[in-house]
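Re: weekly structure request thread

Next one in the queue (152 aa):
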Amino acid sequence: MENDYQIENVINEIKNSKKIVFTNGVFDLLHVGHIRYLNQAKSLGHILVVGLNSDNSVKKIKGPSRPINSLEDRALVLLALKSVDYVVSFDDRTPLNLIKEVMPDILVKGGDYRIEEIVGHKEVIENGGLVKSLPFHKGYSSTQFINQIKKQ
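Done, posted below.
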């Protein structure tokens, strides 16, 4: 099923779309902060593409106990949101190769990132696109929720 979330399945359709917005993340435990962020990202364009870390990629970044939910489950939850048009998985530590393939009009990340820290910012700007850091919703963090559950 992991192949359902590969770039080949969406690249031709989105190339002819109007304004493509791209973001990425693990989205392991979806929460209000994610929903607000994804809604705001979608409001910047016509098509929202979410690059989703594969299970192997999550383990590389977050450690062996993550992800809590499988790629298929995380993708299904994201695709159920009105704001998300496409979910494409990637196996690398960063989505740079995926960003280069999609080459969005707008690249976004959460407000805890400065523009210069956002992977793919140079490539998108050089291609005439915009890079934005959207407001971070304090108090909403999957890691924070996991740690809170562990304490109980």
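The beta strands are 20-25, 47-53, 86-90, 106-110, 130-134. DSSP finds seven helices and five strands in the chain.
Next request, please.
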